[in-house]
Every structure is written in structure tokens, then in C-alpha cells.
DNA sequence: GTATTAATACGAGCGGCGTTCGTATGATGC
DNA sequence: GCATCATACGAACGCCGCTCGTATTAATAC
């Protein structure tokens, strides 16, 4: 009996893949349609999120894209939450972790955060899933292990390093989640107009409306990440 | 004609309440049941979230608690998103903003962040709604106005102050969102056990497992907020 | 060569969600 | 007394995640 989805999930949290013997395929494979695999599910899911955003990723929608029924997915994935974890896992797995260089730890950490940010932004809204992702997933642990190694090489105290990693990843998640919601909001011009129309009980907001609404590109992101990193010993 | 929910929402974003004349109540009011009002809806919603968490707050569930049908809510609230905004608005409205004291701006900002955190934590998961909340809501603007005033009094450059407020509120949101998901996760003991069972490709994680899983109470929160604030000029 | 068995696939259906629509209710102004 | 109109609400629509019973297929055992 090949591993159930539950067993696969457990393996992702506990040990490296048990390398279950690739049991020869059985079961129906009507016509030219290729069989459903976990990888195919993940690939298709990423496609949907990239094109239509995370909210469009439903089990039914995903099944339709795979030309099957939603119930078929549950033979490969425990539930939606499990699918989310698989997506976040793959995302983290693709982060390039540099060999720690004691003289360049700040740039290295900034680089990792930027990579993570760009991965999230490629798949709008997926950071929602990142918040729920369990901290014991092997792929996400690989990421924190790499960040920890960089900070330790930079002579940061272990406790400080651990909390800094938490703070940084939490901020990256939040920044990307907010960024993915930005299209639902009024544009900068509209906000400036509303700020100008505010009553005089909002003097600072009116006066510094430009500063409050500025931050094109990733200026705000860079500002905050640097703020945190420069504060480390 | 008394204001439609849409008009009420617009008022929250544009101008102070237009103080629509409190038209005497009309319509059915069968038996002793008191009429549905926006305030009653908000109060009941907070009760549900406080007791059962944000995910339990559905329009149907809310309507049931008010002893009515879900469709009745739409006479007072535009939609679920609007309800979320009302909740976040009230939450922000209850934050106590101190008179800016140039000599105590750090403590003042920390205090405001801690208040915000405690408000969010009182209603588990509600920070999900905070992410989506539009930045032009009057109650949330009052909060950022107050924080801006504190930072400016501390001689922080306007642009730095604006971005710092963004970073701080984003972090508070993220921290509280993660905190509300914590009960779904394995406890600290279980995580330590898993870390110990990791392969040797995770040397730092294994060695500093204690540091990585520490941070009872709000230690991690305090660490990060101080990290950001101390980095300001 | 045939029967057995395990793996896979999937349609139908359950309960719940946000939201809309048509209609009923009843206090108010004339 | 009657028309008006804010208010209230049941029924239904199209989604959602998920489960269950069953059908299909390929490897295996005899």
C-alpha cells in the first residue's frame, strides 16, 4: 500500500522522505490522460494562484483545471490546509541560501528576505497560507536554519538571532499580504484627495499626506528590513 | 429616507457623521424584541469573536445570535467586509492616544502598540480583518494621526515617521494573527521533540532549539517593537 | 488464463458560506 | 382610514470543503 496523504504529510514534518519504494502504478488511467500526482497538483495550484490570486484557489477550481472531480484530490492531499502547506513548502524550497559570510551577514539576510518577498509576490495572496503554515515543516525549517546560520556567523547572540528571524519572516509575510490586497484599495491619488478633505482634527495626516502615501516599489520594505537588521548588535 | 448602509460607509471614510436626523423608528417590531441596529450588530459580533474566534463570525451565525435571519443584516451593513471594517474601526476607536510628550515618545509609541495588541488579542483572529481594512477609515486614521503626532514630537523626520507607523502596525497585525493561530499548532514540548529528531543537516536548529522556541508572554513582541523603535533617529 | 486484490478515480451529496430578491409587517403623515 | 415607506425576513442561488459508495484498472496469485 503506497503512503496515504496523511503519511506523506507526517514525513514532511518528522523525517526526510522515507523513500517509499516507487510502487508501480495501478488503477485507472483512462485514455491519454496522465495520472494525478502530488507534483501535478502543486504545479497546477501555483498556476491558478499566479494567474488569478490565492482566493481563486479552491479545491473544485483546482480539480477542474486537472480535468477531474474535487474528490479525487483527497487521495493525494489531506485537505486544503495540507495543500497550502505544500505550496509554502515548495516556495521555501526554492529560496537560495548563501554560504554564511561573517563579513556580509547583513547583505545576506536582506537578500534572503528579498527572495522570500519576491516569491510571495509572484503568487498574490499566498502569504495568507504562510501564516498558517506549521513551523515544523522541513522546507520552512531549512529556511530558518539558513537564516540562523547567517546571523550566527555575524556574531549575533543566539536568542537575538532567533527572535530576529521570527520578526523578519513575520514582517515579510505581512508586507506581502498587504501588497496582495492593494488592488482592492483606492489609488494613491484618491487617498490624497480624501486626506485633503479631512477635518482639522487630523492636522498631521493632512500636512504629511505625501509622506504617508509614499513608498513606491519596495522602499517601505527596504526601510523596515534595514530598520530591524541595523538594530541587531 | 434614512441612510442606506452604503451611505453610512461612505460617511466613515469621507466626513464626520452627517448626523442624520434620528428618524423615529418604523417598521415591524414583533413582540418584545428590540430592533436591530448597527451598534447591536457590532456588539453581538464582538461577543461571538471573543467567545469563539473570528472564523466563527459568519453572517448566519451573527443573525442567529440576534434572533433573526441573515438577510436582515444587510439592511444595516453593506456586506461582510463592511462588518469587518466596523469592527476594526471600533477597536481602533477605543485606543487611548496620549498627548505627545517629546521626552517620552518611545514609551508612548510602545504603549500605543501594546494597547493595539491587547485589543486584537481580546478578539482572536480579528487581525485577519485588520489587514483588509481600508486605510481611509476615520477611526483607523485617528490612530495613525495620533502615532504620527507622537513620533513628530520626538523629532523623527516625517518620512521616517510615516514608514515606521506602517511597519509597526503591520507587525502588530501579523503578531496577533500568528498568536491567534497558535492553538492549532503543536505545543512547545512537541516542537522541541521534533527539532531533536531532525537530521544533522539542521545543526543550528538542533543546537539552538531552546532559543528558537522561547518567548513566553510578549517577549518576542517587545523585542521586535523595541528593535524598530530604537532604530529611529 | 483466470480470479483476486490493491490502488486509483470520481459522481453525488452534505452542511455551510455570502448574498439577493420578493414579500410581509406595521408605525407614520395626510 | 389610507397610502407611504423604513424595516424585517424566508427562500433560494451559486459557491465552498469534504465524505462516501462505487466503478475502473493493473499487478499479482493461482
TrEMBL record, chains A, B:
Residues 1-34 are annotated as: Disordered. The keyword Phosphoprotein does not apply. InterPro entries: Homeodomain-like_sf, HTH-type_TetR-like_transc_reg, HTH_TetR, Repressor_TetR_C, Tet_transcr_reg_TetR, Tet_transcr_reg_TetR-rel_C_sf. The keyword DNA-binding applies. Residues 35-95 form the HTH tetR-type domain. This is TetR/AcrR family transcriptional regulator. Residues 58-77 bind DNA. Keywords: DNA-binding, Repressor, Transcription, Transcription regulation. PANTHER family: HTH-TYPE TRANSCRIPTIONAL REGULATOR RUTR, TRANSCRIPTIONAL REGULATORY PROTEIN.
Amino acid at each position: 500500500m503506497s503512503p496515504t496523504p496523511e503519511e506523506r504529510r507526517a514525513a514532511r514534518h518528522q523525517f526526510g522522505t522515507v523513500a517509499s519504494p516507487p510502487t508501480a502504478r495501478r488503477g485507472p488511467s483512462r485514455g491519454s490522460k496522465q495520472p494525478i500526482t502530488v507534483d501535478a497538483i502543486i504545479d497546477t495550484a501555483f498556476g491558478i494562484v499566479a494567474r488569478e490570486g490565492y482566493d481563486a484557489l479552491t479545491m473544485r477550481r483546482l480539480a477542474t483545471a486537472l480535468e477531474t472531480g474535487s474528490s479525487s484530490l483527497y487521495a493525494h492531499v489531506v485537505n486544503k490546509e495540507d495543500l497550502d502547506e505544500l505550496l509554502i513548502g515548495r516556495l521555501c524550497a526554492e529560496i537560495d541560501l548563501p554560504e554564511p559570510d561573517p563579513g556580509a551577514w547583513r547583505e545576506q539576510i536582506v537578500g534572503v528576505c528579498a527572495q522570500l518577498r519576491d516569491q510571495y509576490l509572484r503568487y498574490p495572496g499566498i502569504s495568507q497560507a504562510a501564516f498558517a503554515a506549521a513551523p515544523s515543516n522541513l522546507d520552512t525549517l531549512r529556511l530558518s536554519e539558513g537564516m540562523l546560520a547567517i546571523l550566527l556567523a555575524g556574531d549575533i547572540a543566539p536568542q537575538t538571532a532567533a527572535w530576529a528571524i521570527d520578526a523578519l519572516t513575520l514582517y515579510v509575510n505581512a508586507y506581502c499580504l498587504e501588497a496582495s490586497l492593494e488592488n482592492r484599495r483606492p489609488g494613491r491619488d484618491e487617498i490624497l484627495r480624501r486626506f485633503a478633505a479631512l477635518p482639522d482634527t487630523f492636522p498631521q495626516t493632512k500636512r504629511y499626506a505625501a509622506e504617508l502615501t509614499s513608498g513606491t516599489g519596495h522602499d517601505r520594505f527596504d526601510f523596515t528590513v534595514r530598520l530591524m537588521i541595523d538594530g541587531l548588535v
